[in-house]
């Protein structure tokens, strides 16, 4: 029974992840294919998830994440989310780029707070909850650069450790340029970073100064 229950939970989580990766929604058939479960099983899981507001079905019959997801996301490190909003807003508007705060989760980095610039003609869309390997992209490189060196680590991490920030281009999204600085805790290893992502490279020195300042402001405000 425990194994069955665990498998059911796992399939439910796989549905949520599949929907998170497809904002336009998925049909029951597409979800069954993505999760590897028969449509009958998918339908039962969707009924349960819908009852809790975790998924919703639109008039086009496609399923999407429900609004309850927003409530749950808001409960993740509320201290970081509330403290970082103002500095990230200032950073986004000063640079004209999308500003973000990311957290380390095992070997991956998760975008936790995202603030888009108000007056930019165009900017990179960066979704909250986006995951990627910590060894790729400026957010993860910045966090790793503030942690003890590891054998075989990328040269970009060593460089970021020396200069206090990381830079990447096209590693997560074609053409996108990112710069991030680690959020340095009062104790323990770094677990977060602050950065910006733009459609094209910004002035590195100026942007690095703004990003490092934002990370410092957020870090000092944390308890």
UniProtKB/TrEMBL annotation:
Which is a GO BP term held by this UniProt record?
A: negative regulation of DNA-templated transcription
Source taxon at top rank: Bacteria
Kindly name one Pfam family recorded for this protein.
HTH_IclR
User: Which PANTHER family does the record associate with it?
Assistant: HELIX-TURN-HELIX TRANSCRIPTIONAL REGULATOR, ICLR FAMILY (PTHR30136), HTH-TYPE TRANSCRIPTIONAL REPRESSOR ALLR (PTHR30136:SF24)
- Tell me the lineage of the source organism: Bacteria, Bacillati, Actinomycetota, Actinomycetes, Jiangellales
Provenance organism: Phytoactinopolyspora mesophila
**Residues covered by the HTH iclR-type domain:** 6-67
Query: Which residue numbers delimit the IclR-ED domain?
Result: 61-223
Protein name, please? Helix-turn-helix domain-containing protein
Listed A to Z, the keywords are: DNA-binding, Transcription, Transcription regulation
Q: Give the Gene Ontology MF terms in alphabetical order.
A: DNA binding; DNA-binding transcription factor activity
The protein's matches in SMART domains, at most eight in alphabetical order, are given as:
HTH_ICLR
């Amino acid at each position: 029974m425990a194994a069955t229950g665990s498998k059911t939970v796992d399939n439910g989580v796989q549905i949520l992840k599949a929907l998170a990766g497809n904002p336009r929604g998925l049909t029951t058939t597409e979800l069954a294919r993505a999760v590897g479960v028969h449509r009958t099983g998918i339908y039962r899981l969707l009924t349960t998830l819908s009852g809790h507001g975790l998924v919703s079905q639109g008039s086009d019959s496609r399923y999407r994440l429900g609004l309850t997801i927003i409530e749950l996301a808001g409960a993740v490190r509320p201290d970081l989310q509330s403290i970082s909003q103002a500095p990230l807003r200032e950073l986004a508007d000063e640079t004209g780029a999308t500003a973000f705060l990311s957290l380390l989760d095992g070997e991956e980095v998760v975008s936790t707070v995202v603030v888009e610039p108000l007056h930019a003609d165009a900017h990179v869309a960066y979704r909250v909850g986006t995951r990627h390997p910590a060894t790729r992209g400026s957010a993860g490189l910045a966090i790793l650069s503030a942690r003890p060196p590891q054998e075989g680590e990328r040269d970009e991490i060593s460089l970021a450790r020396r200069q206090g920030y990381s830079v990447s281009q096209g590693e997560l999204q074609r053409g996108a340029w990112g710069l991030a600085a680690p959020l340095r805790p009062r104790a323990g290893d770094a677990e977060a970073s602050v950065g910006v992502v733009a459609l094209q490279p910004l002035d590195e020195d100026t942007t690095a100064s703004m990003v490092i300042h934002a990370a410092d402001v957020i870090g000092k405000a944390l308890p």
